[in-house]
């Protein structure tokens, strides 16, 4: 197995890996906290959560097996060359374990909090059934020949496939509702940071080894990063450009009302009654609680 050629790049590799771990690990907490504060999971797509759990479970199987199993490592080196490095780091395993636990806790919140009549779609249940059927058949096929590298590669591709589709229900739900209320934007920002750091980590390893074998040796890790970045950019556009938070919209509408009132004052031909009505409307926007006490 190859070793690092330049210590600064090795340090950078480790640093980027743990930055990716921290970003992806922290990404799940804002949604959990948001659900807890609201005592509701309305706005969080359940399909996203169940697909995400299977994705993280599959990715954990791949990472943990390749990182800890010497026999699987030997199969990897036999295939890609003994001068290569194993493309899985400790931060990958740590992230997978952490992600499985937190996503499972999200499912607990879905069961415990207000759901607003939302359920897991039949399409997602069908996808999960097919995925686990493929995993089961692949396991039985690998047993006689001990093709463990091939088997965990199947789980790696499953993780990529589920990553490609898991974001779609949430993105479509935001589009359908024309808002992102209930879906944590902090999750998106941290997820985006993790994807960038993860891709950069693999790039640093390739530069040090003067080889891009680790990219196609662990194609799943690269695709997971790129797909996450792509969908995170979509979520950012939805949040900040297409469907800004309701508070910002209300504030904007109030400003427009104030502007109309000022223009009305500047034009004395407008009846006093109309001006007073607008002034009353503005006050009701600025101090809604005062009307409740009257």
Automatic annotation (TrEMBL):
InterPro entries: LC_transporter, PQ-loop_rpt. SMART domains: CTNS (SM00679). One of its GO terms (cellular component) is lysosomal membrane. It is a multi-pass membrane protein. The keyword Metal-binding does not apply. One of its GO terms (molecular function) is L-cystine transmembrane transporter activity. Keywords: Lysosome, Membrane, Repeat, Transmembrane, Transmembrane helix, Transport. Its main location: membrane. It comes from the Eukaryota. The chain crosses the membrane at residues 15-36, 48-68, 88-111, 123-142, 148-165, 185-202, 222-242. It is found in: Lysosome membrane. This is Cystinosin homolog.
């Amino acid at each position: 197995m190859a070793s690092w050629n330049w210590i600064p790049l090795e340090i950078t590799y480790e640093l980027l890996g743990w930055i990716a771990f921290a970003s992806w690990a922290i990404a799940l907490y804002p949604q959990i906290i948001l659900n807890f504060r609201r005592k509701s999971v309305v706005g969080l797509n359940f399909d996203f959560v169940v697909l995400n759990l299977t994705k993280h479970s599959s990715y954990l199987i791949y990472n943990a097996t390749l990182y800890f199993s010497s026999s699987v490592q030997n199969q990897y080196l036999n295939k890609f060359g003994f001068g290569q490095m194993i493309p899985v780091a400790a931060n990958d395993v740590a992230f997978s374990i952490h992600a499985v636990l937190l996503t499972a806790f999200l499912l607990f919140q879905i069961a415990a909090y207000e759901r607003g009549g939302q359920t897991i779609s039949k399409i997602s249940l069908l996808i999960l059934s097919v995925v686990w059927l493929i995993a089961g058949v692949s396991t039985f096929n690998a047993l006689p020949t001990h093709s463990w590298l091939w088997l965990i590669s199947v789980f790696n591709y499953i993780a990529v496939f589920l990553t490609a589709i898991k974001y779609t229900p949430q993105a479509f739900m935001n589009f359908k509702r024309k808002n992102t209320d209930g879906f944590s934007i902090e999750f998106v920002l941290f997820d985006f940071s993790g994807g960038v750091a993860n891709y950069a980590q693999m790039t640093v390893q390739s530069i040090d080894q003067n080889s891009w074998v680790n990219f196609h040796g662990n194609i799943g890790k690269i695709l997971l990063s790129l797909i996450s970045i792509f969908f995170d950019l979509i979520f950012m556009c939805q949040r900040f450009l297409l469907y800004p938070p309701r508070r910002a919209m209300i504030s904007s509408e109030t400003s427009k009302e104030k502007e109309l009132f000022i223009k009305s004052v500047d034009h004395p031909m407008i009846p006093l009654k109309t001006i007073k009505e607008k002034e009353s409307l503005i006050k009701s926007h600025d101090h809604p609680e005062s009307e409740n006490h009257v």
